[in-house]
Design brief:
The chain is mostly helical. It has a domain of 54 residues. Helices cover 63% and strands 0% of the residues. The protein has five helices and no strands. Helix 1 packs antiparallel against helix 3. It is elongated and about 85 Å long.
Amino acid sequence: MKLTLAGVAIMFAPFVGLMAWSTKVFLPTMVFFASCTVIGLWVHRYIEVYPSLYHGSQDIPFGIWEPGIALGLLGAWGLCYMAFMDAFPRMRVVLMTSPYRDEVQVPVNPETMEPLPAHE
């Protein structure tokens, strides 16, 4: 039963939910379906791998290592995101804070000093 619910969370719910265009452009639904997939994958692996490792245990083998690894992966994702945003910022902060922000160079025709069309 749990394996079926994990399979639904991994494949069926995101597939059906993301068929419409409007759900793909609305950020909360994308976050919901992405987290649904991640949680489904985690539950699926938890159900398949842990019984073979802890076949005699009566309690759930959930200790300090599972949240620690999750926090470590979250930190690695944060570092990658910060590096990406440092390389490709969403806005140009340098031109906005520079005293020369009005002096952005526009390509012009050297003879007439008129701006060139944007599609050349």
